[in-house]
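Weekly puzzle thread! Below is a chain. First person to post its structure in token form gets bragging rights.
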Amino acid sequence: MLTDNSGQIDDIFSQEELSYLKKYFSNLPGAFVHTDGNSFSSISQQHPLYSWFCKKVFNKIQQISDAKVQLLFGSYLNEKSPWTVHCDYYHKLIGEPYTVFLIPLSVNGDPNLVDKTHTIIFNEEDTYVDNTGVANRMWDTKLWNSKKTKKENNSMTFYEQHLSHVSVDELECLTIQKILKWKLGSVLYWDEKLLHCSDNFHKNNLTSKQAIVVHTYVV
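Winning reply:
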């Protein structure tokens, strides 16, 4: 069971299971590619592989979470540009967004490099979601910029080490809850409302990282 709104649970998947999942996920057709080069191949409730995904991945997620959690969709992420600060709460298509689960697979395509990167979770929640309609449920950046205030003990402490891809004026308004180091076989998790980002893996001469990301909801 999850004991906090962010954290990490080790030894959930074996290396054989992760290799199997990466083999099939990385070959899924119809990947959505962002302008920054980051891509997603997703399996939702309507996907023909939905039952397969539940059996191979989501059943384990339920075992470490609780019975009420339900699967919205799972994605294979190939991240080529470090994510900046964002939240996932806008995935409010069914029920109430619950927890994000991230399963590290590889870095630069190599599972042995997984421990070279991190996911940064902030204490601040997204309270700036545009709820005018399902299609518009996105983080309202302009509103966030108008409301954010500088804080003591802010994230600038980790600017050089992890966060040099994020603007200084943003980091001064954020405080860090967890720095989750990727580990093979582990599952990272955080509340969908929490702001978070990648570390700047480019600074460590890494070009990409791969993971399975699972978005959930409750009714």
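Puzzle host: Confirmed. Bonus trivia for everyone else. The chain has four helices and ten strands.
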